[in-house]
Amino acid sequence: VIAAAVSGDPTKYNEAFLGKSNKDYCAWILDSEKWG
């Protein structure tokens, strides 16, 4: 859910907002060893 929202609005969820690129953030949030 979070990855879909983030990837769906790269203007809002940009590198300045996320601390990493949109693509890298989505990969990180989907990695079960890194999150949840």
UniProtKB/TrEMBL annotation:
Biological process according to GO: endoplasmic reticulum unfolded protein response; ERAD pathway; protein deubiquitination
Q: Give the CC-aspect GO terms.
A: cytosol; nucleus
Keywords tagged on the record:
Cytoplasm, Hydrolase, Protease, Thiol protease, Ubl conjugation pathway
Presence of the UniProt keyword Membrane in the record: no
Enzyme class comes to hydrolase
Q: Which reaction does it catalyse?
A: Thiol-dependent hydrolysis of ester, thioester, amide, peptide and isopeptide bonds formed by the C-terminal Gly of ubiquitin (a 76-residue protein attached to proteins as an intracellular targeting signal)
EC nos: 3.4.19.12
What is this protein identified as?
Ubiquitin thioesterase OTU
Organism whose genome encodes this protein: Nymphaea colorata (pocket water lily)
